[in-house]
Amino acid sequence: MNKQKKENPLLNILISIVIPAVILSKFSTPEYLGVIPGFLIALAFPIGLSLYELIVQKKVGFIAILGFVSILLTGIIGILEIPTKWLAVKEAAIPLLIGLAVLISQYTKYPLIEKIIYNEQLLKLPLIEERLQANGTDAQVKKALRNATWMVAASFLVSSILNFCVTKYIVVSPAGTEAFNEELGKLTAISYPAIALPSTLVMVVAIWYIIRQLKKATGLSMEEMLAVS
User: Fold this and answer.
1) In this model, does residue 3 exceed pLDDT 50?
2) 147: left (phi over 0), alpha (psi -120 to 50) or beta
3) Helix or strand or coil: residue 226?
4) For labelling, which of 83, 89, 109, 229 has a CA lying 20 to 30 Å from the CA of 3?
């Protein structure tokens, strides 16, 4: 029996993005870790997660790669004292890349929305697909999944724009200064709830939309469709 552990997206985001960002913004000052050690320690978290996934799960997740690239670019901007406008570009690029990945994946064998919503952990797929075949409503559900994909991708586009605007407003000091580190900490505190909220709400709406369309297409109730552990 395949006992491969399921990924925990929230834990991956915490390890790959949140903890490294806090280290960079709060503990990379001279009185704590210092700029270079702080950067290396922050980078160690997404690298460690990537190695764990590669060794244990035989693959590297998108979140781990994204966290590694994000922290690497933030550290480079701070250490090399690159103009802070590029920090805003980098912050906007992250949700934009996620949105593009969601959108492009629907044209591959591994559509992300299906992995997140239309999967055996959440739904009784054999029963659902049996009803879809019997009712001839497969196309209806495929269209609903495409619509949900566009909804989620659009939410990440909104997050990208918000990220850019919030970063430009908060981070105004030159990179490499103590004020820059403080502003980066403020950005971290504000941006995660502010930027993640739209995407989370849209994901909830997308799940509700898919469930609603499945009920119409199969004639099953929500209780009959949901997988029970």
Assistant:
1) no
2) alpha
3) strand
4) 109
Collapsing DSSP to helix, strand or coil, 123 comes out as strand
Angle among Cα 200, 205, 211 to the nearest 5 degrees reads 125
Mean pLDDT of the chain: 78
What DSSP designation does 174 have?
P
**Percentages helix, strand, coil for the chain, rounded to the nearest 5?**
75, 0, 25
Candidates 71, 67, 81, 80; CA nearest to 23 is 71
What is the pLDDT at residue 202?
85
- The pTM score is 0.69
195 within 8 A of 93, measured Cβ to Cβ: no
Local confidence band at 112 (pLDDT 50, 70, 90 cut-offs): confident
Q: Cα separation of 52 and 25, whole Å? A: 25
